[in-house]
Design goal:
This protein is mainly beta and 400 residues long. 4% of the residues lie in helices and 42% in strands. The chain has 1 helix and 35 strands. It has one helix spanning 2-16; strands at residues 45-46, 55-59, 67-69, 79-81, 84-87, 90-93, 98-101, 106-109, 114-118, 125-129, 138-141, 149-156, 165-170, 176-193, 200-202, 204-214, 229-232, 238-240, 244-245, 248-250, 258-260, 269-276, 280-284, 289-298, 305-309, 319-322, 327-330, 332-334, 344-347, 355-358, 361-362, 370-374, 385-388, 391-392, 396-399. The strands form 2 sheets. It has a 24-stranded mixed sheet that branches. Strands 19, 20, 22, 24, 26, 27, 29, 30, 32, 33 and 35 form an 11-stranded parallel sheet that branches. It starts with a helix and ends with a strand.
Length: 400
């Protein structure tokens, strides 16, 4: 009787002291004493479909609490995901972790959810598709300011057909990237949609993708944080596909051109205000650069703001600026314009305003005979323009 009592007491103690662990009897790390059930991220399974090892964690459940994915001892692939995982709290990915994704695999932050991929120079984190096949990438949405961080992380084969990209910032999603590589996507490496993002990128590379970065009008503030992005893709542009761009301001010199693509073939690119104070290249395709209010493009000596066509053998339609306002262009270069009215066309002539063009190069296109053309007037007083230190290849510098 005494022995039965001791056994019963031991069972009661064991049951009452259950701990977190894997409670799935099919897992190789099944823990009878676990108090947590049906949490796949705590379980390790044998998987005959893995190319490199038989031990990895299969994950397919939303993360509603803070969780860390550590290295799995002895595994060359630590985790496998083939579903959308919604992350409501913080997911920490430890140095050196390798995650493989099936075709339905996706990481999606929501609410207060965030991802902290804490790789190091010697132990990079890898997120990749099985057999280099595409998975659905990462979407950052509604995340707290700078709570998402990717350090020394390689993102490979990711492609979400909805965002046409590997990584998408939706709503207020933001991120800090440090030594990150995004590669092997049939779409964009990075896309941003809705509202603004103020993400930061340091030593980040997008390579072997069809396109690089696409930013709508609402994410202009992100441009100044892209200075250290490096591209090696089919198209190496930061693409802004908006026809109407509000309060455009750029104070950083980007490593890559900005392609203002418009929303359709016939749309011109309209800036209500534009301020550029750093050397950059703007690219257009068969469109006007319309300036509705003021332009202040004043680049420090030694650099140029270059305005050109997407195809070096193609053309665009030059600048069209509203002379109800004054405009300043210092250290700019314009080429490949195909418009007889001038490389810079000034509309709504107003004698009280001035256009200033200094230290610039105006290379007129094959059908452009005038550098600066004033519309709506038969003559232009010299007091309405200030042109100094500027080279023109047109037959006429200024004409009405």
């Amino acid at each position: 009787m005494k022995n039965y009592l001791i056994l019963f007491t031991a069972i009661v103690v064991l049951v009452s002291c259950k701990r977190e662990g894997c409670a799935d009897p099919k897992a190789i790390n099944f823990d009878f004493g676990s108090k947590v059930i049906d949490v796949p991220e705590l379980c390790i399974y044998d998987n005959e479909d893995s190319q490199n090892d038989l031990t990895k964690v299969i994950i397919c459940s939303d993360l509603t609490q803070n969780v860390t994915w550590p290295k799995v001892p002895g595994a060359s692939v630590d985790y496998y995901v083939n579903c959308r995982i919604k992350i409501y709290q913080q997911l920490v990915i430890s140095p050196g972790v390798v995650i493989e994704f099936g075709p339905e695999g996706e990481l999606y932050t929501q609410g207060n959810g965030s991802i902290f991929a804490n790789g190091t120079a010697s132990e990079r984190i890898t997120l990749r598709g099985v057999n280099q096949e595409n998975w659905k990438g990462i979407t950052f949405t509604n995340s707290a300011y700078y709570s998402n961080t990717l350090n020394y992380t390689d993102i490979e084969d990711a492609y979400n057909t909805q965002s046409n990209s590997s990584i998408n910032f939706s709503m207020n999603g933001e991120i800090k990237c440090n030594n990150v590589t995004i590669r092997n996507s049939p779409g964009y490496g990075i896309s941003a949609s809705y509202y603004k993002t103020t993400s930061q990128f340091q030593n980040t590379t997008i390579e072997n993708c069809a396109k690089s970065v696409i930013l709508p009008n609402s994410t202009i503030s992100l441009l100044n944080n892209l200075a250290s992005l490096n591209f090696s893709n089919t198209e190496n542009f930061i693409e802004m596909p908006d026809s109407y761009i509000v309060n455009f301001s750029l104070s950083s010199s980007l490593s890559n051109p900005i392609y203002f693509s418009g929303t359709s073939f016939s749309d011109n690119i309209y800036f209500d205000n534009i301020t550029v104070t750093a050397a950059n290249t703007f690219v257009f395709h068969e469109k006007y650069m319309n300036i509705g209010y003021t332009a202040n493009c004043s680049i420090p000596n030694g650099g140029k703001l270059t305005l050109t066509s997407k195809d070096p053998a193609g053309f665009w339609l030059g600048i069209s600026a509203n002379m109800n306002y004054s405009h300043v262009f210092n250290n700019i270069k314009i080429n490949n314009v195909a418009l007889s009215q001038g490389s810079i066309r000034l509309t709504n002539f107003n004698a009280s305003n001035i256009i200033t063009v200094t230290n610039s190069i105006i290379e007129c296109g094959v059908s452009t005979s005038c550098g600066i053309h004033f519309s709506n007037t038969s003559s232009v007083p010299s007091s309405n323009y200030n042109i100094t230190g500027t080279t023109f290849t047109c037959s006429n510098q200024v004409c009405p």
